[in-house]
Amino acid sequence: MLSNKATKFTIIDIAVIACIVAAIFVTFQRMSHVLEYKWEWDTIPSYFFYLDNLTGKVKANILTRGFVMTVKLSAWATMIGFVLGTASGIMGAKGSFGQRFISRAYVESIRNIPSLVLIIIFYYFVSSQFLDILNIDSWLRNSSNSFQKIVSFLFTDPAQINAFISAVIALGLYEGAYVSEIVRGGIISIPDGQWEASMSIGLTRQKAFLLVILPQTFRKVAFPLAGQFISTIKDSAIVSVISIQELTFQGMELMAATFLTFEIWITITLLYFILTFSLSSSVAFLEKKYALK
Amino acid sequence: MILKILSKYWKSIFFSIVITILCFIPGDRIYQPECDLLCLDKLVHFCFYFILSLTIQYEVKNKISVKNYLLIFLYAAVLGGSIELVQENFIVERGGDFFDFFADVLGVVFAFFVHKTINDSMQEPQYFKKNFKPFIFLVFIFLVFGFGYKNLDYNWQWYRVKPYLFVFKNGEFIRGLLLDGLVITIKISCLGLIFSFAIGFLSAFARLSSSPMLRFVAWFYVETIRNTPLLIQIFLMYFVIAPVFNIFAFYSAVIALSLFEGAYSSEIIRSGILSVPQGQYEAAQSLGLSVPGIYLKVIIPQMMRQTLPMLAGQSVSLIKDSALVSTVSIFDLTMQGQRIVSQTFLTFEIWFTVALCYLIVTASLSFIIRQFENRLKYVNQ
Amino acid sequence: MKKIFCLSITLLILICGQVFAQESIIESIQKEKVLRVGMSTFVPWAMKDKQGELIGFEIDVAKQLAKDMGVEIEFVSTAWSGIIPALLTGKFDLIIGGMGITPERNLKVNFTIPYEYSGMSLVANKAKAKGFSSIDDFNKKGVVIAARLGTTAEQAAIKYMPNATLKLFENESQALQDLHLGRIAAYVSSAPMPAFHALKFPKKLFVPIKENFTKEPIGFALKKGDHDALNFLNNWILNMRANGFLDERKAYWFESKDWETLVK
Questions:
Q1: What is the mean pLDDT of residues C103-121?
Q2: Contact C263 A257 (CB under 8 A)
Q3: Does residue B334 belong to the interface with chain A, where contact is any CB pair within 8 Å?
Q4: Closest to A16 (Cβ–Cβ): which among B134, B208, B213?
Q5: Is the ipTM of this complex over 0.85?
Q6: Are C184 and C81 in contact (CB under 8 A)?
Q7: Is the pTM of this model over 0.95?
Q8: Taking a C-beta distance cutoff of 8 angstroms, is the pair B252, B191 a contact?
Q9: Distance between CA atoms of residues C183 and B247, nearest Å
């Protein structure tokens, strides 16, 4: 801040590099001598894809399946969260007393409870209310095979569809509270001049909102919302406690079966990192390109 | 004489009857009282709703507006508590329950909302039409949960939860398991808060420094932490990194939590520092202050005003994320809840109580910080 | 007006949900043509093989049950500490997962007659539990032991070693990791898991106590009020005992180690 940021390598940089190298060295030293850990990286790839001896085809194994499940879960949860959050945000910004109360109550109650507790409560209490009555899994099992295949691709197979739906709705509710705040902030930040101008053209309040304010809001909140999608991917790790077969859960199962702790957790961290980092980099790139001047 | 009173207060009476019935349709399921339509229970509730409605009428007539939601809540708590006290001491047929108190509080808040809507609608004709839909929506949600409560085929046993919170033995206050967990949660959160702010500051300064290596290290740290889930980081720290350096279990969880929150705090602090205008630096330099002096005396106080609300959000986040350390067997509130549930199978009662504890802690923290913020606004302006 | 109509219809449906009589799971299983079984991974009762498919003693028993009922089988893998609430809220029909029959559990669910017996055993860290050879050695302040959350191992640990500090984990693998790292002195679990694990890592771990220090019956768990299902399952178990299926499977999974190649 005080000096201009010239890219000079000073003594501080050398010190930092030396510290990092020393840290890595010490880590490996301790791992091989104190823990006597034997690295077994060669078994890991087979947990991604394996060759089925019977059919001779390459099939996806649990890590890939978990990865795909994480993506599906996050996508659906974001969609639900988006719908809920937008409705709640609009109500909270420009609604009557009752609507603002509902929006505020929703946002405050979700934001003040840990997601873990929320998902557990939702899974046992709320989901059994509706899902048992609707009996989605038996309806799904009785439908045709091709329909089941499509549903398995989009969601999951009939055995896990109930748990999947409750996880999606719970995550969606959780994310919706944050989306609501983003949308509400976006609507409030539109200057009053826009309202007045649209009224002076002769639009009613409702039409003004739909045609003038909302499009501007979406342009403003599009990138924070993309950030929220990335957050959802990270929050989806929590649903492993209700045994949804997503990536974290598969990691725990794998660790139980093989005890290759280091390899498994490093692999899973890398998978999450690759997923979210690539998404957030693309969002940042798009943001720079299409930034509002 | 009676007719005169009735005609004067007909609104309040009508309102109280409606609310009593509405609250007892689901309430009947909760309390499962052995009494019929006109039992003492309902009469007590009716009286208190009547008092509430009278107060609101008084406010409206004298143009006092109760805008402060906290006051409403306190009022509801006082009324709810009084209902409980009266019931416990004067109605022998049904012993009061700690959780009936909460049900009563909810009922009072609900009653307040209903009354306000009806009252305001009577003054502004459009008001009722605008608020009708959300009102019906709320009633619907209320009834769904009320019916669903009984529908679940579950034996609610709220009275069994109290020993897990606290007991009074020989006049001594002994903490139950849940409160023990709460103490551990608060301990972890405090430690995590201190460390995460320290890490946040260090990392923010590293990113703003002139050394490219430091900038790279800080950037790498922030990006790695922000792109992986907290649960995975806790596992990584607990199973992979801590054994290497022989870190005690409790502290590995605290470190993982601090690192995670530190990354987010770092971004907030960095944007706060960047938002202070360049002119401040130049002015401070021209006064002859040294570099640490500039930051401590000029930049950081100005930055604090903007970043304090976001840091408040971080503290709330920290308390919520501390729930995740239960996965590595730290006996915090969530872990104690899981333990009690697995032994006694009081699933819903315990989990709702745990959620309520978190709600109370985080809501009070946000409230305190908001008051602090308001104080700061007047001082610095 | 339309909205109020829709809302009241939804309310009606919810109320009606209460009115439907609960039918036996035998009927519902035959109708759905699928048996949903709740379980949790517990080596070697149920575990995942290299292809990610479920194998184990409980898996075999459940598959045989489904075959005898003439329906498909579906396994609902659930966290153990929440498995009984999941059963009670109808997420699956039965629990076939090595669940010990205890009076506390019996207050909430019904159990079949035992199809197996198990006992508790310990696997200890050689460095941390040097020289320990009896339960009393572990029952001292300052000794840290672990058990799985919500299992009879947890209750046995509290009952027999109340002075030791108890750590609880949702998953076995986490507890075993702690054992390897020396954070805990011993891990309490149903036999034969401790012995198997000590055999795998003879340099670090050992079994301090030769016999199991508890004995408990294992049965299927199902919702209360379902007498037809209870009768069916009890008789099925008697049949399986008589024709030697249970003994044969037990010998394969618990006494031999032929299945090891499937897992790793």
A1: 88
A2: yes
A3: yes
A4: B213
A5: no
A6: no
A7: no
A8: no
A9: 10
